[in-house]
Design goal:
The chain has 812 residues and is an alpha/beta fold. It folds into 3 domains: 73-244 and 251-360 and 369-417, Thiamin diphosphate (ThDP)-binding fold, Pyr/PP domains (Rossmann fold, 3-Layer(aba) Sandwich), CATH 3.40.50.970; 447-663, Rossmann fold; 677-811, Rossmann fold (3-Layer(aba) Sandwich), CATH 3.40.50. The chain contains 29 helices and 28 strands. It has a 7-stranded mixed beta sheet with strand order 17-16-18-19-21-20-26, sandwiched between helices. A 6-stranded mixed beta sheet has the order 1-13-14-10-9-4, sandwiched between helices. The chain has a 5-stranded mixed beta sheet with strand order 23-25-24-27-28, with helices on both faces. The longest helix has 26 residues, at 101-126. The chain starts with a helix and ends with a helix.
Length: 812
């Protein structure tokens, strides 16, 4: 009651004051109470997103400053809105407002460190010591000051390409950051990442991501990892990416940084939905400098009030003047506290960036010089603080000296750090060597702890039903009768259920998961493990691949099931980042992510072009991916088991038109992720007679090739090899076969240009040329969209009859 009276009193006192504009948690509240819709009085001009400081904007300012100037968000008005929209109590508001001299000194010092650091970066860039793209943060120093004030080491931070100061404020050593920019071995990522890719596993700074908006679902995945840690009841967690000690209350949060321009990306809406649906502990920290790269955001975005985007989802938001460090700290503390104790929130910090997008920015073409000149004079958060009364509370000289020393030491460290070894890129291709024996790899916390966690986190009746399903599938697999065995879909489902039962850090994401998707691949997972570990997803593959990346960086082993592998085209950016992460982070973050899906192009498939694309060929060029294919239940089971236990990203392709065909399946067998396998071998007599030929194929080509070999009989002596590993390519097995047959035919389920067969034939020509008695023959899809009609599809997609003709031609 007293709190209500205090709020009412404060509202009356601040009624005629320009207030902070904070989004309400409930969208039903009238927006007219915000100053966004306050009618301007005769002597003032109100523009988005607030009131000009000093009244009406001078008429001689550039248009961009006429329409977007500095705003005012005084604390007296802000606390009213925070009480209403975040439910903050008077005690919580008073605590947030209590900025001690020590805290103020730390905030100012952090701002000065960041200003000095970025200035040194600019000079080093012009001197050629820093190369590539670099994005400076001058003018936005209140944000790292806020991070230093209330974001902890255990919190999971996901930034974007303008990340230097975010990293330093999060506890990353400034010397390591500068050395990374210099491309040195002492850098945070040993020189593999550079300016846009700062990572530090010790402080949980998880990027530095270069594609605008891509960090959003990664951070949601990180927040889910916190959510899952809590649901599993970890007594103290240890996993390969980071550690945290036992705590009485796990109040860690995830923080994701995004610009107001990047927040226009559709990923923002998807992530707000996900955060609200699971009440995730995530802060969306929106850095609003009015520029989407260099474009004036107001010219391209109808809604710049990003802090209000969460209203539809019940997520509260706040807007604060980033030029006022004290207001930023006070409002930021309340918002962060809300995320720690209640759920997701948005904080939009209104700033001005003094520099162009990058040093190469042609600012003279984008009307920015006048704007930047004005911002340095009128909107510098450091100058504004120094001009205020609060600056007298701290020892400025000591703060400045400390900042100067830290930055000088950072530069000295970078200058003296050695270059990374030339072999580092190759050394970081995969976290696991290709010779890894996955059958003996235990969960990271050990089998006993894993079993105890599974038992504690899941109802006994659910685990009993799960074991019954596993027993039934294993019995079917062991049935060698004509009607026995498993379908490819059931074999994959069995592998997934066994691994999720064995290791509680294994998760799964899929569309239509509750119903088992299209081929029963994720069937029974949600019934056994609940909605957190088995997540039914919205229909956007990039979104949930991104969430899986965030989980994988934080100790989980996500499985992503594609209803059709071609749908993963929506997630190409995320899949690329999954492949790059281990190397780009200098080996700090493993990426145990497995993507499984039915795809490929079978003869007479009749699915049309969009469902018949060679997705496996599209992703062959992504570094760090292991790409496997399985055309039988036993291969599917063995590859999936190994892939889930691998510490890097793996893609398992399955034949879309053969998913329900049954066959034998040996359980508890782990297939290597780097080897092809012989399906049949040419007879010595046939080879000696000059009839030898090696046939390489995969997916639907396996069945077509087996039919072709049967039709040829003794006409040819065929080594039939299934490419269960497309990448890395098993050149040892190919070379061994060619040393006998000296002829090679590829039945390839990808296009002539840029296809898998093109890569294989090039490598064979480079590495096995002396073994060939004839040119490599490629029987591949033509460079045309796969048509629906069988009559014309035959001219595009190769099949058994083409292989028969090809083999007869090459051995003639």
């Amino acid at each position: 009651m007293q709190a209500a009276r205090s709020v009412a009193s404060a509202r009356a006192q601040a009624r005629n004051t320009t207030g902070a504009t904070h989004a309400r948690a409930s969208p039903r509240r009238a927006v007219s109470r915000c100053l966004l819709e306050k009618q301007p009085e005769a002597d003032e001009t109100v523009r988005f997103p607030g009131k000009f400081v000093g009244g009406k904007a001078p008429e001689d300012l550039p248009r961009h400053l006429q329409e977007r100037n500095r705003i005012s968000t005084p604390w007296d008005a802000a606390r009213i809105e925070l009480a209403e929209r975040f439910g903050a109590s008077e005690a919580e508001l008073d605590k947030a407002a209590d900025i001690s001299d020590e805290h103020l000194s730390e905030a100012y010092t952090m701002m000065q460190i960041c200003r000095d650091f970025e200035n040194e970066c600019g000079q080093a860039y012009m001197a050629g010591k820093i190369r590539g793209f670099m994005h400076l943060d001058n003018g936005q120093e209140s944000i790292p000051a806020l991070l230093n004030d209330c974001i902890r080491e255990g919190d999971l931070k996901h930034s974007y390409y303008r990340d230097h100061c975010h990293a330093i404020a999060s506890g990353v050593d400034p010397g390591a950051v500068m050395a990374e920019l210099y491309g040195k071995d002492g850098g945070t990522c040993r020189g593999t990442g550079g300016s846009m890719h700062i990572y530090d596993v010790a402080s949980n700074f998880q990027g530095g991501w270069a594609l605008v908006g891509e960090q959003l679902p990664y951070a949601v995945g990180a927040a889910r990892s916190i959510h899952m840690d809590r649901s599993l009841g970890y007594p103290g967690k240890q996993h390969q990416n980071h550690k945290w000690d036992k705590m009485e209350k796990d109040d860690r949060i995830a923080v994701v940084f995004v610009g107001e321009g990047g927040a226009q990306n559709g990923r923002m809406a998807e992530c707000l939905n996900a955060a609200a649906k699971e009440n995730l502990p995530i802060l969306f920290l929106v850095i609003d400098n009015g520029r989407a790269i260099n474009t004036f955001t107001q010219d391209v975005a109808a809604n710049q009030a990003v802090y209000r985007m969460g209203e539809h989802y019940g997520i509260p938001g706040a807007l604060v003047d980033g030029q006022n460090i004290e207001d930023t700290l006070k409002v930021g503390r309340v918002v962060v506290d809300h995320v720690r104790n209640k759920g997701p929130a948005i904080l939009q910090v209104h700033t001005f960036r003094f520099n162009g997008h990058s040093p190469a920015d042609p600012e003279h073409e984008r009307n920015r010089k006048d704007e930047k000149r004005w911002a340095r004079k009128e909107a510098d958060p450091i100058k504004i603080f120094l001009a205020g009364e609060s600056a007298k509370r701290i020892d400025l000289d000591a703060c400045n000296a400390k900042a100067a020393e830290i930055v000088k030491n950072a530069v000295d460290f970078a200058e003296n750090s050695p270059d990374p070894p030339p072999t580092l890129a190759a050394d970081l291709e995969y976290p696991d060597p290709v010779t890894t024996d996955y059958s003996v790899r235990e969960p990271v916390n050990g089998l006993a702890t894993a079993e105890a966690l599974t038992t504690r986190a899941n109802p006994a009746h659910a685990l009993e039903a799960l074991q019954g399903t596993i027993d039934r599938l294993r019995a079917q697999a062991a049935d060698k009768s004509p009607k026995g065995g498993l379908s490819i879909g059931d074999a994959v489902n069995l592998a997934i259920l066994e691994e999720m039962q064995r290791d509680p850090t294994t998760t799964i994401h899929a569309e239509d998961l509750q119903a088992g998707s299209s081929y029963n691949v994720p069937a029974h997972t949600q019934q056994a493990f609940g909605r957190i570990r088995a997540c039914d997803e919205i229909i956007d593959e990039g979104h949930f691949i991104g969430k899986a990346i965030g989980e994988a960086m934080n100790g989980y082993r996500p499985i992503v099931e594609m209803m059709n592998m071609n749908f993963a085209i929506y997630g190409m950016a995320e899949l690329s980042s999954a492949g790059n992460t281990y190397a780009t982070t200098g080996g700090q973050f493993i990426m145990p992510l497995t993507m499984i899906g039915a795809g490929g192009t079978a003869p007479n498939q009749s699915l049309g072009a969009e469902h018949s694309q060679p997705f496996h060929a599209y992703i062959m060029g992504i570094p760090g991916l292991k790409i496997c294919s399985a055309a039988s239940p036993d291969a599917a089971y063995g590859l999936v088991k190994s892939a889930i236990r691998d510490n890097g990203p793996c893609v398992i392709l399955l034949p879309v038109k053969s998913m329900k065909i049954k066959g034998p399946c040996d359980t508890d067998v782990f297939y290597p992720l780097h080897k092809a396998r012989y399906l049949s071998r040419a007879s010595d007599a046939g080879v000696a007679a000059g009839k030898g030929v090696t046939v390489l194929t995969y997916l639907h080509g396996v069945k077509e090739a087996q039919n072709a070999v049967a039709e040829l009989g003794d006409e040819a002596a065929v080594d039939l090899i299934e490419l269960t590993s497309l990448k890395p390519l098993d050149m040892d097995t190919i070379r061994e076969s060619l040393s006998r047959t000296h002829r090679l035919v590829l039945l390839d389920e990808s296009t002539r240009s840029g296809g898998v067969g093109a890569t294989i034939s090039a490598r064979v020509a480079e590495e096995c040329f002396d073994e060939l008695d004839a040119p490599v023959m490629r029987l591949c899809m033509e460079d045309a969209p796969v048509p629906y009609s069988t009559a014309i599809e035959k001219t595009v997609v190769k099949r058994a009859s083409d292989l028969v003709a090809g083999i007869r031609s090459i051995i003639a």
